[in-house]
Amino acid sequence: MKFDYDLFVIGGGSGGVRAARIAASEYGARVGLAEESRMGGTCVIRGCVPKKLMIFASQAGAAAAESRGYGWQGAGEGRFDWAEFHGKLLRELDRLEGAYTSGLVNAGVEVHMQRARLHDAHTVELADGQRLSAKHILIAVGGRPQRPDIPGKELGLISDDLFTLDRLPGRVLVVGGGFIACEFATILQGLGSATVLAYRGDAVLRGFDAEMRRHATEQLRAIGVDVRLGTNPARLDREGAGVRVTFEDGGSEIFDAVMFATGRAPYTKGLGLEEAGVRLGRRGEIAVDEWSQSSVPSIYAVGDVTDRVNLTPVAIREGHSFADTIFGARPRKVDHRLVASAVYTRPHEVATIGLTEEEAEACGPADIYVASFRPMRSLFAGSDARAVMKLVVDGETDKVLGCHIFGPEAGEMIQMIAIPLGMGATKADFDAAIAVHPTLAEELVTMRKPSRRVGAAKMDKPAASA
Ligand code: NDP
């Protein structure tokens, strides 16, 4: 049977664009791609990229304070102009979107700027009614922010809205304690909004190493965020120009804006997946195997829509591996076991890879190396903020199983640490590296003695000979 395309991709985000571009430019496939919104997807248009630029903007006040600590008189006496910054941000996003589109077009991909849904295992239907057939279909539609199911939830903003605000709210409530809640609270407080963060748990960033969670929670407070733990909204009501939030404990307060950062869910609704026989998981994600293949052999899926590891670089790797496997005859699976990530809080980021201390404790024994110190740069400027670095080391093999950093530019450091960890480096390998002095990262290769040993000896460990 002759198809219109070798590959049709639904979704022009990180994973879809990479798969389309590699299939077309490297392997000569005839590729079509449909995007209903803007090319670049969540990461470029309403996620990582604008978020990080906002983090930079939000840090200017603290940078000025640090400058004053270094003798610069009058640093930071200006005021932040949201309209100017925002206009520049939107122009930058337009530029990036253009680059994504031209990257596809130059690779020979036919781009359809409209919604597409599955018609059957080999056919997509565009919003204008056009039906296009393809030998393979890749679904890369990502996820969408979720609001909690409470009365008045529609009065709350979601993360997408932060990037389209006309002006910053005077007083804002951020709900949640994950990546987005921590980063957005950091941004909003740093740009001048009085920020309250309500999180139902006992420390932000559930799933991270407990010591890092504690430091991240304390840092939010130190930069001025009113962090309320064990707190959750029960309902929202419009009141004047603001929103009245009634909390689960019965208390209520008015905010200029409420922002839900309460997780994201796969964007699979209305795509025709069930009708085409594609099996979905409990959260509506497309169930795929290790080759990103769905229950329908011609249909594949990558990125957040599969709800595996929901990070841009993972989606990119999945999209690239799919193209290599299907069109390049170079079968490549993605190893999701050891993926580094960073939360861009300020002044210190939280970065992580591998086992946390708590996870290691459960399967120990493990040696925990911790360096906790005040970085010379902020100390000199008058700050008491501590940085913390932790290595989790297998007590039997000496292999480094995890690394957790709370400190300036922790994201930059964890990227490099991902290399030796992926190669199975031992603590002795770390020790063999000569430090670069004076840096923060040198602490990672100069931790001489473990702070503690956790976890019982493995049950199946052979008994020591008598
Ligand atoms: P997360 O899953 O990280 O956090 C969701 C938060 O919302 C948790 O604190 C959760 O609480 C809370 N929550 C969930 N449901 C409710 C509810 N019904 N009522 C109250 N609180 C609730 O999601 P995010 O939205 O922060 O981020 C989504 C994804 O985006 C992440 O998985 C991450 O991979 C990605 N991301 C990555 C970034 C990075 O790499 N720097 C930056 C931003 C996003 P609890 O902990 O109790 O479950």
Report what the structure shows.
Residues 339-447 form the Pyridine nucleotide-disulphide oxidoreductase dimerisation domain. Helices cover 30% and strands 24% of the residues. A hairpin with a 5-residue loop joins strand 17 (341-343) and strand 18 (349-354). Helix 1 packs parallel to helix 5, helix 1 packs parallel to helix 9 and helix 3 (48-58) packs parallel to helix 7 (179-191). The termini are far apart. It has 13 helices and 22 strands. The protein is of the alpha/beta class and 466 residues long. The longest helix is centred in the N-terminal third of the chain and has 25 residues, at 82-106. It is globular. The model is unreliable at 459-466 (pLDDT under 50). It folds into 3 domains: 5-144 and 265-327, FAD/NAD(P)-binding domain, CATH 3.50.50; 153-262, FAD/NAD(P)-binding domain, CATH 3.50.50.60; 347-453, FAD/NAD-linked reductase, C-terminal dimerisation domain (Enolase-like, domain 1, 2-Layer Sandwich). The structure holds NADPH dihydro-nicotinamide-adenine-dinucleotide phosphate. Residues 148, 175-181, 183, 199-201, 206, 232, 261-264, 310-311, 341-344 line the site of NADPH dihydro-nicotinamide-adenine-dinucleotide phosphate.
